[in-house]
Specification:
Length: about 90
């Protein structure tokens, strides 16, 4: 095996590692956003269960779930405040 073949193999491994790293970072961010959105949807569902006694309801859709997923508890408080004041 020549040294040129070894350099080609090492170069291919490095290229595959770089490509893997490029695609893994956005995938992790997307999976984190999806996970947080699911938790946000569950939080909105719990708010709706508690708010049913007070005739209070927040619509559970993709937008509100993503908002609560990104912002967390402050996002839920924001939705409650918007619902009360609007």
């Amino acid at each position: 095996m020549d040294f040129s073949n070894v350099f080609v193999i090492i170069g291919c491994i490095v290229v595959f590692m770089v490509i893997g790293k490029i695609f893994s970072v956005p995938l992790k961010a997307i999976l984190k956003l999806v996970g947080n959105s699911i938790l946000g949807g569950i939080l909105i569902f719990i708010i709706n269960l508690i708010g049913a006694a007070f005739q209070f309801h927040i619509g559970l859709n993709v937008g509100t779930a993503i908002l609560v997923g990104i912002l967390g508890i402050p996002g839920a408080i924001l939705l409650i405040a918007l619902k009360i004041f609007m």
